[in-house]
Write a structure and sequence with these properties.
Structural class: alpha/beta
Helix content: 40-55%
Strand content: 5-15%
Number of helices: 13
Radius of gyration: 26 Å
Largest sheet: 5 strands, mixed
Number of strands: 7
Distance between the termini: 47 Å
Number of domains: 3
Order of helices and strands: EEEHEHEHHHHHHHEEHHHH
Length: 370
Amino acid sequence: MNSIIYLGMDVHKETYNLCAYNNETGEICGETKCKADIKLVIKFIENLKKTYGEDLVVKAGYEAGCLGYFPYHQLTNYGIDCDILAPTTMARSSKEKLNKNDKLDARNIATNLANGTYKSVYVPNDEDLAVKEYIRMLDDTKIARKKVKQHINAFVLRQGYKYEGKSKWTLAHLEWLKTLPVTGLLREILDEYLSQYDDLCNRIDRYSDKLIELSHEESYEQPISHLRCFKGIDTTVAMTIHVEISDFTRFPKACAFASYLGLTPGESSSGSKTTYLSITKQGNTTVRNALVESAQALVKGTPGVKSKALKTRQKGQDIKVIDYADKAVERLQRKYRKLIHRGVNHNKAVVAAARELACFIWGMETGRIN
């Protein structure tokens, strides 16, 4: 039987810390710090094979972080088995709170690899990865627009003006901003802010149109059209959920998917006392936020009544898909109202709806809609 060495890698932009660990003997076979160059990692592995034999099997791994999937693809291209460890699932010692550095992090990754005390991050295919980056770019642009809105609101408030209309960022509000009686340099500042806002809006529209175009590609057409049958889920949200997760079959149950998204409550129990905490917020933040925003829209309206926009999205879809989505929406709307009636906070009720919406989406994506 070939011996196995587990290679823990604490990866950063400039440096890699490596730790080779033999689980059979509990021995640290080698440690080093090198530049962020995969060739140096391969050289380290080759030196291990010179010492322990050419039949040595190396299992490498590193924590998910800013480098994304790049080290993974580099190592697999060299034929090295590699896992990306989800940080929130790794076993950690309480001593780490007292003493933490890159060398110890590499050791911890190696021991987690050896003991299997972690869950690996799913690696999407190249197509999904490219679309995923495109969605992230769209989200970044939306964040930039939100900041510009905040700057404009703060600027107008500092000048002593207050909008008396019903809602901001409508055509009426924008016209009000353009006609404010500010002059000189102050007018130039406001015009520059408004120009930034218009530019970001145009870019968001362009990116959204491109995302709609991508959603009609063969690999996305059917799953995206099915997800859009849910109230509160448009093309952008549907693409975000589908591309970020990619393979829903890796979750054996709907509750496992909800747990992965961090939408399940934590627990702090001892003896006969059971205490449930707020949601764990572990896992994929992007999908969790998208589901909460969708739930905000979903719980509004009258149960059983569909808007024209939703009817348009459902047009031409399989009747089983439509019935499944409608039953899910009606159930979640009623659940939200029951929670509010019991005095549950609005945000908590929305998160509860988002958690169950995640379960229904898992059923839709895995074909379990009967």
